[in-house]
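TODO from last week: model Flavodoxin.
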Amino acid sequence: MKKDKIMAKSCIVYFSQTGNTEKVAYTIAGRLQGEGFEHVTLQLEDAHDFPEAYVDADILGIGFPTFFGYPPPHVMKFIESLEGNGRHAFVFTTYGGCTAGDSLYDAARALHERGFAILGGLKVEGFDNYPQSIWLKINEGRPNELDLARSEEFAALAIKAYREGRSLSPEALATSNLFFVKKRDKSRKETMAAMRKKIEGKVVFNKEMCLFCETCKKSCPTKSITTGEAFPEFSWKCIDGVRCFQCVRVCPGKALLYEQPISDKEYKRFLKGIADSPEEKARPYVVA
């Protein structure tokens, strides 16, 4: 049954550390608005204060950066709090160009289990903001104009699928990357921990360099940094224990430093070992 294109509601809820996912979110939002949807775009941290924006949206988009091949745990927790009741949803992710892993599949599967019909999924390459990747300039300049054009194309196709009443199985968004295929039946937390153990460095706080400007506190996506008596206080809860290193990136006094665990050569070798095949790279999106 075809959907009425008049007065339909849409909402995008996204988490973005560095602005990559936000760029894609607003590109898709622009297409939804241009197609006549009554649309709201929300950061994940604000979503709980505005449930009216998404609880009855005809189309719900969920966007996030890929963390070690999967969605950030707090994004999955948000999805698991939703009730789809037959409404439509799509997912999108930004990733450092090596692999998006099973991030689209996991998010779409969780949405489907909550009662949503899945319109499709989009993966967009972005500048890899992992500390070691930053100084190696991996995927610098992404997402670029072509990436955003593909994002708008995806949005147009997803809207068409919605109006024609089509949906797809979450399995259509599963990666063909053998590293993740072999681990698909294993615990995501276990797989992420094994990957992180090889490359995740420590954050070192140098009090003598601290300007007490609280830039780290203001930028922390999980509010894990609070005001102390003399210096910021770090709980290191981060994103369910997964470091995003946002505090390291934004600290103007360089009081927060990243302790590199492996050499650049070893790091590049690790990325090569989990990289997508050219065929997997060639499918930036899948739509019903």
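Done. Residues 145-163 form the longest helix (19 residues).
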